[in-house]
Amino acid sequence: MATAVAPRVFKNFINGEWVESRSGKAYENRNPANTDELVGMFVSSAEEDVDAAVDAAKEAYKKWRLVPAPKRAEILFRTAELLVQRKEQFAKDMTREMGKVLAEARGDVQEAIDMTYYMAGEGRRLFGQTTPSELPNKFAMSVRQSIGVCGMITPWNFPMAIPSWKMMPALISGNTIVLKPAEDTPLSAYHLVQVLTEAGIPRGVVNLLSGDGPGAGAPVSKHKDVPVISFTGSTAVGRIIAMACAPDFKHCSLEMGGKNIIIVMEDANLDLAIDGAIWGGFGTTGQRCTAASRVAVHKSVYKEFVSRFVDRAKSLKVGDGLDPSTEMGPCINEQQLNTVMSYVEIGKNEGAKLLTGGNRLESGPYAKGWFYAPTVFGDCTPNMRIAQEEIFGPVVTVIPIDSLEQGLDVANGVPYGLSASIYTRNVNRAFQATRDLYTGIVYVNAPTIGAETHLPFGGTKQTGNGHREAAIAAIDFFTEWKTIYIDYSDKLQRAQIDNA
Ligand code: NAD
């Protein structure tokens, strides 16, 4: 006889303890490939929970900032080792809550592992500068100092990687954390925090709050005792966060939307370009900030490219990401699916040629999930809405071009500037493109996705506000420079005056 088992309720982590939300409310987290499957219940946080988490982080900061960075690093190394041990379990849970295929979920956990090891290594560096003073018997140097409580608000598409990109550099630099992950993917953030606790992170240094954006995220972004906000998500919400940060002049890093492009020149290796466009366009169901949602193809190879690209898109196996033969999973939720469907209508109405897809998949194995067919629009013009706006789904617009110059104009002619790619065997064109593409990331003969954790990540224009994640750039964001002059001359020495 079947027994009804109450679903597990995952709690907030505040001041070293797993606690209910003050309101006692919780919400469901369901599998987007099979909405019958309840992944778990997660508590809904509100302002009073945020206050408790910030208080804990503020108190913990007093001690954590004074722990030597190499000692902080030991906790990060242990965290990375635990992540390695649990990679498979965490990847499966990620696929269940987010839908990306298992190989990609493993990659997401691996990115967190890479970032954690990398930032642990920084514990024995965190270099500043020493430089000669312009005055005799005077020493000059600059050191990095931590800032305080860092609020982190993250999206659902990289449920463990993105929180790790923010948490690890913040922690190694001596800051404490209040993390509010996306409401669709709290389990992966829960796992990350769990391993940090097992690795010995002191009480209050890391705090986790589940809940939605307006209820739990907004109070973090506005809190007076949170001097740093690191946000990744849509441009629309990024603008709200920037305004919430402005009155207190908070340090505010915004990583937002993208409308990325692959340019295919007439001398490109077409096999390679098609592989890249398929992976760039339909990997993670097109739900990557770096997804190649536009492909600009030189007219002399346009026909061949489009016919082969469409054949490949048609043959992609869509399904549950836990099935090893699946190549593309579902959209994250009903709202995202509706957005995709509405953009497909917009594309048809503005005269783009629907070459494949354009329909929801809802029968048989797809009946219980948010599945959509891989979709390609051809003969697009650069100013169509489907070629300008972020769709965040499995929809690729193909735009014919006559020249590299036109390709670069098309590439740069959108409000975003995250990632761009060119396929060519001509070294002059490749270098010209790397110079003239106004994006934070450029690839040559590789698709728009594939960031490595020790290089800066981020974008221009409405993708970002000038900061970068990952690499040393992340340390730059989570620290402030302090310049120190030590005068051992035993007399008053005036810079710019006594040495003139
Ligand atoms: P989203 O903007 O809807 O939500 C992001 C986070 O903000 C979530 O945690 C959400 O709860 C929170 N939030 C929503 N409203 C809020 C408010 N008023 N105040 C405070 N927090 C609030 O984005 P999403 O749908 O989760 O993610 C998809 C978007 O993220 C896409 O636009 C994608 O391009 C972008 N993204 C960008 C990068 C990058 O590095 N540039 C990386 C991944 C995703």
Structure notes:
The chain has 500 residues and is of the alpha/beta class. It has 2 domains: 9-256 and 464-483, Aldehyde Dehydrogenase, Chain A, domain 1 (3-Layer(aba) Sandwich); 261-444, Aldehyde Dehydrogenase, Chain A, domain 2. It is 37% helix and 22% strand. It contains 14 helices and 24 strands. The protein has helices at residues 47-64, 69-85, 87-98, 102-122, 161-172, 186-198, 213-222, 235-245, 270-282, 299-315, 334-349, 404-412, 427-436, 471-478; strands spanning 9-10, 12-14, 17-19, 26-31, 34-43, 129-132, 138-145, 149-153, 176-180, 206-208, 228-232, 251-255, 261-264, 294-298, 353-356, 360-361, 371-372, 375-378, 395-401, 416-417, 419-423, 441-444, 460-461, 480-487. Strands 15-18-19-14-13-21-22 form a 7-stranded mixed beta sheet, with helices on both faces. The chain has a 5-stranded parallel beta sheet with strand order 10-9-8-11-12, sandwiched between helices. Strand 11, helix 8 and strand 12 (251-255) form a beta-alpha-beta unit. The longest helix is centred in the N-terminal third of the chain and has 21 residues, at 102-122. Nicotinamide-adenine-dinucleotide binds next to helix 7 and helix 8.
For the secondary structure, the number of strands is 24
Pick out the low-confidence regions.
Answer: none
Bound small molecules, by name, code or SMILES, are: nicotinamide-adenine-dinucleotide
Gyration radius, to the nearest Å? 24 Å
What is the terminal separation in angstroms? 92 Å
CATH third-tier fold name of the largest domain = Aldehyde Dehydrogenase, Chain A, domain 1
Output mean pLDDT. 97
The portion of residues forming beta strands comes to 15-25%
Shape: globular
